Amino acid sequence: MEPEEAAPGDVFVTEERVRLAEAVRHLVDATLTAEDASPGALATAAGKVERIAAELHRRGELGARPSGVRSRAETKHDDYLPRSPLVGVVSPLAPPIAYEERDGRLVGRGVFHAAYEGPPGFVHGGWI
User: Fold this and answer.
1) Secondary structure E strands in the chain
2) Is the dihedral of CA 88, 93, 97, 103 positive or negative?
3) pLDDT band at 63, cuts 50/70/90?
C-alpha cells in the first residue's frame, strides 16, 4: 500500500511507519502459517519481537498485555483514519488493500492472508 498523504505538520504517517506495518503483517502471517517451525525457533522469534516492541515503547520490558497509550490529539477524520483496523495505512491490523475511486465507486484490490481467514481457505465473513 502506498502511504496516505500526510497533513501539513503531521509526521505520524511516514514511509518508515508504513513499512513497519507491512513487516508486522508479514510477522502475523508467518505466526499463523509457519506450521513446521520448531519450538526453539518460535521462542527465539518471540524474544526478538518482545525486544523490538519494548524498544519502540522505550521500556525495559513489556507487561502482560499491550499497554501503549496514544498522546496525539485526534480531532478530525484524517487524524485517526491511518490507524483504522479496517483501512489504516499504518495499522498492521488492516488488510493490505489498495483503494481507488472509479466512476463514483470505491474499488479495493488486495489479497487477504491467513490473519483474515474464517473457515479454512476462506476470508472471514466479517471482512466481506
Assistant:
1) 97-102, 105-110
2) negative
3) confident
